[in-house]
Amino acid sequence: MAVEPLISESQIRDRLAELGRQIEEDYRSRPLTIVAVLTGSLIALADLVRQIHIPHRIALVQASSYRGATTTSTTLVINDAFAPDVSGRDVLLLDDILDTGQTLANLVRHIQDRGAASVKTAVLLRKIGRQVVPIEPDYCGFVIPDVFVIGYGLDFDDDYRHLPYVGVLQQ
Ligand code: IMP
Ligand code: MG
Q1: Residue 54: which CATH number?
Q2: For residue 102, which atom of ligand 1 is closest to its CA?
Q3: Structural domain contains residue 150
Q4: 116 burial class (0-12, 13-18, 19+ CB within 10 angstroms)?
Q5: pLDDT digits over 57-74, tens only?
């Protein structure tokens, strides 16, 4: 399958540096924990945290959605074994892409329930046209049209995550 480049390596680098400066200003002197959603946000996490020059912790959560066999509703199963103690901390949830919004909205509630002092959200990409849950990301790298993207952490059937840029899969 061919890949059409959409967002280049240098565009991503420049944008993450801008977001890093904003996050630094917003969280100066606050107990920041960045909670990244596996697996798609791993590459963005590694590049973003190196642009945030204030002390902060890193934690990981996994969120898998399962579509019921007999219904159209989806259930989100959250594994936060690698996000130790977030109580009293200012959490910034990081995901690769906001699509329908269900993953992030559920995770925000989950982290709030675990006693975080505050919960904000950051996404590398925000896809326009498919959102069903009203959630506004606090930090957003790029707004993209309703196309299926891969690379820079994003996968198709678990492949393509290693591409250093974001591209559109031509089927
Ligand atoms: P949401 O819960 O619908 O917002 O879905 C978010 C998740 O769906 C992301 O963490 C991705 O794993 C996946 N996803 C949504 N759109 C794409 C895409 O275009 N490419 C790859 N993964 C996607
Ligand atoms: Mg994902």
Answers
A1: 3.40.50.2020
A2: 2
A3: no
A4: buried
A5: 999 999 988 776 666 667
